[in-house]
Amino acid sequence: MRALVINCTLKPSPQPSNTEALAATVIAALKGHGAEVDVVRAVDLNLKPGVETDMGDGDDWPAVHEKLLASQILVVASPTWLGRPSSVAQRVLERMDAMLGETDDEGRPVAYNRVAGVLVTGNEDGAHHVISEISGGLADIGYTIPGQAWTYWHLGPGPGPDFLDDERGHDWSVSTGRAMASNLVHAARALGAMPLPAPPS
């Protein structure tokens, strides 16, 4: 089983990423269930604006699209900015919009029989809003969102320290991330054993 984690931090490599740090705990849990995990730091790539799988010369999205199609599990990891997903997360979802028009050999949308979850960091309130926005977009595309397929770390409200700077709340975020990983893996296995059919015409 393969999983893909798309880190939608605004910080290019090699800057430390709080979102990456929390994602690492979920990645470890996924690997503990036998999943192979790829990680994409989207801000490091040239993801052109648009809603096509390939927006032309220099576009790095086609390689990410291949990883999506090779994975049964997707985790979109985003910081909260102004109470909303990062602009990078929005760009990723917009590029995934092209998948709405893609089907497999059996006529199923390509996101069918794949599961997705969401991970959020930030020092303000808004984690559940960000989870809802990203989960809603992924469900529209065709992903199955299992129960409690998310984790987050927020100390809000108000400005405060980052995940990497403060140990408060880590135990809850990590244990919730382990539950998230377990739910994603077991839901993916269930869909693998009894896949969704193509939508009725």
UniProtKB/TrEMBL annotation:
Matching Pfam families: FMN_red (PF03358)
Domain NADPH-dependent FMN reductase-like: 1-130
Protein name: Flavodoxin family protein
Organism: Streptomyces salinarius
